[in-house]
Amino acid sequence: MSDWWQTRLSQIAKERPEGRTFAAFNLNIDVVARVTPHSIQRLIESTPQLDWECIQRIDVDSLRSVRTREEFVAVLRHGFKTGKSALLVRETEDFVPWWRELFPERTESMGGQAGIIANQMAALGATSVVYSPLLSPRQASFFLDGVTWPVGEGDSVCYLPAKEAGRPEDLTREPWVFEFKKGETFHFPDGSITTPRANRAIITTAVQGPERRFHADIHRWLARLGADLDVAFLAGYHQCGDRPDDFDAVRRYIEESRRDLLLLTSQNPSLKLHIEYVPAKVRELETEVYRELGKVVHSLGINETEMRSVMRRFGREDLAVGLEQDERAFLLYQGGLFLLRELGVERVHIHNLGYYVVVLRKPYHCSPEVVRDACLFASTVNARKAQAGGYVTVDSLEETARLPLSDTGLEQVERFAAEAKAVGAPLQPVDHGIWEASDHYVLVTPAHIVPNPVVTVGMGDTISSSAYFYEVCEAKA
To answer: What stretch of H or E contains 477?
Structure first.
């Protein structure tokens, strides 16, 4: 079976999809710090006042923000032990000088889903447009050539180089990303931890700036803007507006955002909208937020860790527990099918280490074979990014496609087929990695695993955007 997948992969890597993409709203500059055993030793020696008993008692899974140095250390330790990613908010900027002393091995790069996706789409040859209510000149300098910024003029929209669109009065948001490698051993006063996989913890800033939505500088031209696009990637709604402590304000923000998206697609019904899941700042309203957005967007991207927490918030404790006990494609499919029906979207893409699970509502706008090919394309893009960092060009994909797809992914395809048959699931095999039910398709596609990736931040955004970009462009062609 692996020979068929590798042959198909090599064919897909020769493709050159062409299309018009849009990314909004999250922009920031990621400060990426490399966490090494030496930097942890430096942390321990330079901070003797740390309360290690307190650190042991902290329930990292319940944290929404980082307020103390003990909580920060607990977050890192949890990541080292589980190999899982984390995303939290720092409640004080006092952390930053401390971090600068502890982690001299760091870089600055484009961050935020919109920034990462806009640059990656431009690198792949797309006509790439980006928008955010916050764009400082320093932030703008991180855009690649080829990324453009929309400006309304009269009854039309023109497009400027995004590098030149910065506003001197705007702030720059700087989250810190703490990356660690697989197989490294970190020594603590109460024992040692060896990392099972490479991953990262993101500690973002509480400084948010204007709410993530279309502002007056472009709002009047949304219908005209949408007419120029094929696919749009949207992120930032998880911030829940600028008054997340006011539930009525959050609901108004989401309703206004929903109407904005209807306006964006009003002159172009074929425009596809994708949102990448991020935990909502107001957990009590998270299900409501995504249900409302699901009424107007077409596609949702989510990873395996997020799927577990989302299942809990939607009342599917059975699936959350099952995934904790044995994380596998069939349970991710059940979670994806639940979200497909609960949110009303037509596509759910779950990206996991070594394989992807995609659930499609029937009738779908293209064949499931195109969606499978799109997943292979995305895996190749992501593998190249993991190997070399930066942004991936289509010219580098044929070489990367020679890398073998993961044994994990190939095994999950077989396990899915066996489990679906064993439990009597109403699924009929269609082709390699594709099954069909009366009202949906499910795809399980093996992907690459790159040991010790150069970067880990932005991987989910790269996978989701590359896959949907390829799919929409091929369907249009």
So the answer is: none
Q: Which helix (H) or strand (E) holds 186?
A: strand 185-188
Identify which of 356, 351, 368, 382 has the alpha carbon closest to the alpha carbon of residue 458. Answer: 382
- Give per-residue pLDDT as tens, 179-191: 999 999 999 999 9
Give the amino acid at 445: T
Give per-residue pLDDT as tens, 312-329: 999 999 999 999 999 999
Domain 2-30+110-170+208-476: what homologous superfamily? Answer: Ribokinase (3.40.1190.20)
d(CA 245, CA 232) in angstroms, rounded, equals 29
* pLDDT confidence bin for 172, thresholds 50/70/90: confident
Say how many residues make up the chain: 477
Where in the chain are the domains? 2-30+110-170+208-476, 37-104+174-205
Band of pLDDT at residue 207, cut at 50, 70 and 90: low
Describe the strand order of the beta sheet including 28-34 as a list of residue ranges. Answer: 65-66, 86-90, 199-205, 176-180, 28-34, 106-111
Architecture of domain 37-104+174-205: 2-Layer Sandwich (3.30)
Contacts of 81-84 with C-beta under 8 Å, sequence gap 24+, read 81/193, 82/196, 83/182, 83/195, 83/196, 83/197, 83/198, 83/199, 84/199, 84/305
Q: What angle do CA 441, 121, 228 make, to 5 degrees?
A: 85
Q: Which two tokens stand for residue 201?
A: 């913890």
- For 233-259, the pLDDT digits (tens) are 999 998 888 788 889 999 999 999 999
